[in-house]
Automatic annotation (TrEMBL):
Domain of life according to the entry: Eukaryota
One Pfam assignment: CRAL_TRIO
Cited PROSITE patterns: CRAL_TRIO
Lineage: Eukaryota, Viridiplantae, Chlorophyta, core chlorophytes, Trebouxiophyceae
Region feature Disordered, mapped onto this chain: 1-51
GO molecular function, a single term: phosphatidylinositol transfer activity
PANTHER family per record: GH16843P
Chain intervals with Polar residues compositional bias: 1-12
Stored InterPro entries: CRAL-TRIO_dom, CRAL-TRIO_dom_sf, CRAL/TRIO_N_dom_sf, PI_Transfer_CRAL-TRIO
Organism field: Chlorella vulgaris
Every CRAL-TRIO domain range: 136-304
Gene3D superfamilies: CRAL-TRIO lipid binding domain (3.40.525.10)
Extent of Low complexity compositional bias: 29-38
Name of the protein described by the UniProt record: CRAL-TRIO domain-containing protein
Length: 374
């Protein structure tokens, strides 16, 4: 069932280039915002720089990757620590600065040993499932996990709670990335591994209380220090005018390559052709439909007030599958609450099919949850 998720959403060609219609609140985003949509191979063929026209994007050679790995100690190269793909990402992030790449890898490995991010639990969501609304809900045409978040449905603005939830979500996205060159994932011959995610951030509900630069700084710091080259595409949906202030404060800290991955677009109740057209360039029809329905649901105040993402329900689906009576009942209840009768806000149909009966796809602490824990 895992393979069906990626078979439905796999392609072997580059994403189409942008038409230049997306602009940021403060300044125009450069044309070609999808220039980094296709992840590069961890070790370019023949040990030479891969012929990938990415503008100023740096792509390391096999020799550079090997040189980084040779400078790391035995503990750094243990399973689950640093591999060639990680060395490649940090070389790209540092523009080929081998010494800096090695230092940053060691810093991240030290951080991971200390934080154990795969086992970080968002205690706020345990106490109140409505604390955050940010989770993996599907994948795009390049098999990259898709994160969806909506500020209107999140009640918690605590900096540390949001840091934990963000880390847990990033780790879950990595957990769901299909392995490189695995035929069951739909990876085409010569196509690199999936190593980045897409993020659809719905700014519906954004207000002055959200103009806290500390939260933006957490994201920027985490992404730069410990998750470099992980953000593939970032959709900012319906940012209000007040967001301009926050954007001006943080945009100068965002490097040009990352800025090219950002799309600004509005959700409109009457005519969503522009948003639908943009999403359709990155997602299959089923997932595009799901995202649009999710945004529509979340603008229904009565419905949004009743929604909370249930990781115990997701865990039960992964553990017991759709055959379990309590899973079926919970799914029917979610659908009754939705304005779209076929819409399940746990995730797109392909995502739920992939998780169904596959607990290993979830982080360790999520595997242990069940509906009985609610």
């Amino acid at each position: 069932m895992l393979s069906s998720l990626w078979r439905r959403s796999s392609i072997s060609a580059d994403m189409p280039s942008d038409d230049g219609s997306m602009h940021s609140c403060a300044s125009s985003v450069a044309d070609g915002a999808a220039t980094d949509a296709v992840p590069g191979p961890p070790t370019p063929v023949g040990g030479e720089t891969a012929p990938l026209p990415r503008g100023k994007k740096y792509w390391p050679t096999q020799q550079e990757v090997d040189a980084v790995l040779q400078q790391l100690g035995p503990a750094d190269l243990e399973p689950g620590a640093c591999d060639a793909a990680m060395a490649n990402r940090y070389l790209r992030a540092t523009g080929g600065d081998l010494k800096h790449a090695v230092k940053r890898i060691r810093d991240t490995l030290s951080w991971r040993r200390s934080e154990d991010p795969e086992r970080i639990v968002c205690s706020a969501c345990v106490a109140d499932p409505k604390s955050h609304y940010m989770q993996v809900v599907g994948s795009d045409l390049l098999r990259r996990p898709c994160i969806y978040s909506c500020l209107a449905l999140a009640t918690n603005r605590d900096v540390e709670d949001n840091r934990k939830h963000m880390i847990s979500t990033f780790e879950q996205a990595i957990r769901l990335m299909p392995a490189a060159h695995d035929p069951s994932t739909g990876a085409a011959a010569g196509q690199g591994p999936c190593e980045s995610w897409v993020w659809v951030m719905d700014f519906h509900g954004f207000s002055l209380r959200d103009c806290d630069p500390r939260l933006a700084k957490i994201f920027l710091n985490l992404s730069a220090a410990h998750y470099p080259e992980r953000l593939g595409t970032f959709f900012i949906v319906s940012p209000p005018t007040v967001f301009n202030t926050l954007w001006r404060a943080i945009s100068r800290f965002i490097d040009p390559v990352t800025k090219q991955k950002i799309h600004f677009v509005d959700f409109k109740q009457k005519d969503n052709s522009k948003l639908q057209g943009l999403l359709a360039r990155y997602f299959d029809a089923e997932t595009t439909h799901w995202l649009l329905r999710e945004m529509e649901d979340n603008r229904d105040k009565e419905l949004a007030n009743s929604k909370a993402y249930s990781y115990p329900e997701l865990s039960k689906l992964a553990t017991a599958g759709q055959a379990a009576s309590d899973v079926a009942a919970a799914r029917q209840l979610r659908r009754r609450r939705s304005t779209c009768k076929s819409h399940d806000h746990l995730g797109s149909p392909a995502f739920l099919e992939a998780v169904d009966g596959n607990p290993d796809l979830l982080l360790p602490h999520l595997q242990l949850l069940s509906l009985d824990d609610e």
